[in-house]
Q: What sequence folds into this?
């Protein structure tokens, strides 16, 4: 379902140069608005791209289900600005591609601070809905390291229990550890009971984790793994989003060890560059247990996401 002309496989050096310009052209403030995060999900989400006018458009769908419904994310700018008429022209061309295929058109995962750009391009022609399940949780790095304060007292108790009970080693992930990491990921899935949708989601995640591990030597990728008695029991991997923010894309731990989740998060934050102030730990996908866990860590703020739809089926150019 290639709405746009290019896929993220077999990127040429010129493709990479162009994509980097757009992904670094603006502070999108989102864990999903990096080239790497799109690259690792390119196959499971059938991602395709094309520069239309002044902006880069990316479309995708869930390729793991039958009859997937394609979506487009917020177009990317290469020069840090969004001009209403040019943005309008780009989106209308993207909409035309969707209309030709009789696919409903909307702009999804729009960062809250970017909604005004679409409102300026389509005054009174679009409606925006807050997508709470896609909001991203952003924490202060120092808080995740120390878990200080009354609000995090229970989490700190779990971490202290682990530190007093277990001897462990924290190591940077290398390519030599990929097979070990993937074996741990598969075992973690197989050791729990999940419904069919959850299992499919986890299989997709496994593909993305393995893709990210292939990029583990990139200096903008941060990782740590915890070994207990020489055996891998937890890992975390992320990347830099901006000057002062990093994202943690994946975190896995053996929950048989009380406090290990708190420790792997703390260790990941410790290895980040000193200038990193915030850590984006992504969305909860509307999963009740995940939402409870992320809220319990007391985020500094949320990066809100919106869906934009046209109020009428035919937009006048």
A:
């Amino acid at each position: 379902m290639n709405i746009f002309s290019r896929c993220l496989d077999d990127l040429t050096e010129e493709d990479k140069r162009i994509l980097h310009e757009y992904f670094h052209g603006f502070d999108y403030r989102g864990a999903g608005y990096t080239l790497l995060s799109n690259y690792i999900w390119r196959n499971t989400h059938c991602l395709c791209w094309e520069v239309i006018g002044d902006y880069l458009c990316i479309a995708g769908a869930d390729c793991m289900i039958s009859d997937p419904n394609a979506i487009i994310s917020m177009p990317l700018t290469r020069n840090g600005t969004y001009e209403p008429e040019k943005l309008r022209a780009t989106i209308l061309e993207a909409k035309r591609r969707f209309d030709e295929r009789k696919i409903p058109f909307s702009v999804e995962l729009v960062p809250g601070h970017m909604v005004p750009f679409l409102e300026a391009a389509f005054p009174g022609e679009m409606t925006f809905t807050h997508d709470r399940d896609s909001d991203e949780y952003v924490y202060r790095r120092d808080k995740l390291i120390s878990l200080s304060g009354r609000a995090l007292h229970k989490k700190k108790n779990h971490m202290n229990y682990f530190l007093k009970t277990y001897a462990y080693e924290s190591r940077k992930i290398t390519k030599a550890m990929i097979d070990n990491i993937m074996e741990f990921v598969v075992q973690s899935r197989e050791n729990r009971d999940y419904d069919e949708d959850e299992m499919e989601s986890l299989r997709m995640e496994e593909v993305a984790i393995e893709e990210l591990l292939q990029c583990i030597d990139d200096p903008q990728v941060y990782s740590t793994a915890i070994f207990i008695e020489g055996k891998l029991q937890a890992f975390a991997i992320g990347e830099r989003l901006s000057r002062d923010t990093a994202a943690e894309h994946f975190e896995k731990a053996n929950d048989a060890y009380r406090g290990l989740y708190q420790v792997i998060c703390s260790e990941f934050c410790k290895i980040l560059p000193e200038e990193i102030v915030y850590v984006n730990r992504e969305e909860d996908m509307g999963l009740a247990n995940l939402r409870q866990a992320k809220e319990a860590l007391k985020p500094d703020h949320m990066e809100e996401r919106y869906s934009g739809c046209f109020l009428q089926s035919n937009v006048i150019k």
Summary: The chain has two domains: 6-134+305-310, 136-282. The mean pLDDT is 94.
